[in-house]
Amino acid sequence: MNDKSTARQHSDKNAADIDFGVLPDLLGYHLRRAQIVMFNDFVKAMADVQITPGQFGVIAIINSNPGLTQSALARAVGIERSTMVAVIDALENRGLVERRPSPNDRRSYALVLSDKGAKLHQDLGPLIDQHEQRLSDDFSEEEKNQLIDLLSRIANGSR
Q: Is 2 a domain residue?
């Protein structure tokens, strides 16, 4: 059999028939696949409000920490400041977040949710709960808490 016929045979395989090699033994592989499933469900659940998982995270943190600076927020979520500026710009353009002069540092801004942003945060609660429930239905409460603990250990250990 030549290389072309072997390549053709492999290209016609269904996903269930594909040998994933070492990938099923790798934690990172499963984390990434789970993230894709979580994000896809989140995007579907939030289609009417057009909020991404990252934007929701920013809204939730600002809601719990009004007056937080962009730099502190970027550090807290582990992204570059320039990336955070783009996220805040998008949320500000939608009227969800306001930048106010920081009372402690004239060079930075304090972030707060606008009235529209606060209402959206409140309205998203049930949608977030439904999203989380859909994806954790197969877990007992103990298993869900254990998974959160294990993932937190990975996330906090890499900082």
A: no
Q: Read off the pLDDT of residues 14-71 as tens digits, 9 standing for 90 and up.
A: 778 899 999 999 999 999 999 999 999 999 999 999 999 999 999 999 999 999 999 9
Taking phi over 0 as left and psi of -120 to 50 as alpha, with beta for the rest, 93 belongs to alpha
Q: Residue 31: give its domain's CATH number.
A: 1.10.10.10
Rounded distance between C-alpha atoms, residue 108 and residue 113, angstroms: 16
Tell whether the model's pLDDT for residue 140 goes beyond 90: yes
The count of residues in the chain is: 159
* 14 in a structural domain: no
pTM for the whole structure: 0.83
Within 10 A of 131 (CB to CB), how many other CB atoms are there? 20
| Residue 19: strand pairing partners | none
Specify the DSSP class assigned to residue 65: S
Residue type, 14: N
